[in-house]
């Protein structure tokens, strides 16, 4: 099999209360369809999808799902540690899921340290509101929270697909911007950002300062 060509790989996680729609969002993003029956206990490890950022740089996203382990503290540290960003997911028709977002955010910050994670606040199941269900989190309130925390906010539906790609794109672009400003570097022993296979004739993506060679080879 030919490995698809990409310039970087970013590892992102989806966090938020159980049943808010994380797995469905991932499924839609990677498969282009809504899976009506999603089994919260089936442990899907990760999904992958290629996405281009504004200057055409190609990013492979490695997207990790919590697989039903959403209770606080039950998520292992390495799940966070090896990530560069997180989608903070709540359900627009579930007030409690929004109120738990600050805790999810803190938990992610704590474990992703020393890196400063990129977040996007993602309100799911927008189609329910369109179909008459009672909205429990207003767009304005979520936007205010997002602005106060300097994160992107977006409302989506894994059923209709509205804004699904945009949610992932927002995080991806921000991670890439931070590579360009030098805040993020590719580091040995951290899976948050990795270099990929540069396209022939493309830029040299050797971002890290070269470590002194350990062997005395050539
Ligand atoms: P998770 O526990 O956060 O991974 O949530 P799931 O993706 O398993 O979704 C929980 C339930 O909500 C499932 O029954 C899904 O079919 C449903 N669901 C997820 N996303 C949407 C959505 O955008 N719209 C609607 N109407 N239902 C959704
Ligand atoms: Mg799930």
UniProtKB/TrEMBL annotation:
Q: Cellular component terms, GO, for this chain's entry?
A: cytoplasmic vesicle membrane; plasma membrane
The family database entries (PROSITE patterns) matched by this protein are listed as: RAB, RAS, RHO
| Compartments it resides in | Cell membrane; Cytoplasmic vesicle membrane
UniProt keywords (A-Z) are: Autophagy, Cell membrane, Cytoplasmic vesicle, GTP-binding, Lipoprotein, Membrane, Methylation, Nucleotide-binding, Prenylation
Its placement in the membrane is given as: Lipid-anchor
Database matches in InterPro entries: P-loop_NTPase (IPR027417), Rab39 (IPR041818), Rab_GTPases_membrane_traffic (IPR050209), Small_GTP-bd (IPR005225), Small_GTPase (IPR001806)
Q: Per its record, how is this protein called by name?
A: Ras-related protein Rab-39B
User: Which species is listed as the source?
Assistant: Aphidius gifuensis
């Amino acid at each position: 099999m030919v490995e698809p060509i990409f310039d970087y790989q970013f590892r992102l996680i989806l966090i938020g209360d159980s049943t808010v729609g994380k797995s469905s969002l991932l499924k839609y993003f990677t498969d282009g369809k809504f899976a009506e029956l999603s089994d919260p206990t089936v442990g899907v490890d990760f999904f992958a999808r290629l996405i281009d950022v504004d200057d055409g740089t190609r990013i492979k996203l490695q997207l990790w799902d919590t697989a039903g382990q959403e209770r606080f503290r039950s998520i292992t540290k390495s799940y966070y540690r090896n990530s560069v960003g997180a989608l903070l997911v709540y359900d627009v028709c579930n007030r409690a899921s929004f109120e738990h977002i600050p805790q999810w955010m803190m938990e992610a910050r704590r474990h992703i340290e020393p890196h400063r994670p990129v977040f996007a606040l993602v309100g799911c199941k927008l189609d329910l509101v369109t179909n008459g269900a009672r909205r429990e989190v207003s767009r304005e309130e979520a936007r205010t929270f997002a602005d106060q925390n300097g994160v992107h906010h977006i409302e989506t539906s894994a059923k209709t697909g509205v804004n699904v790609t945009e949610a992932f794109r927002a995080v991806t672009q921000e991670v890439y911007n931070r590579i360009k400003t030098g805040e993020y570097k590719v580091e040995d022993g951290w899976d948050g950002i990795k270099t990929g296979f540069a396209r022939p004739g493309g830029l040299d993506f050797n971002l890290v300062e070269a470590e002194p060679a350990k062997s005395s080879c050539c």
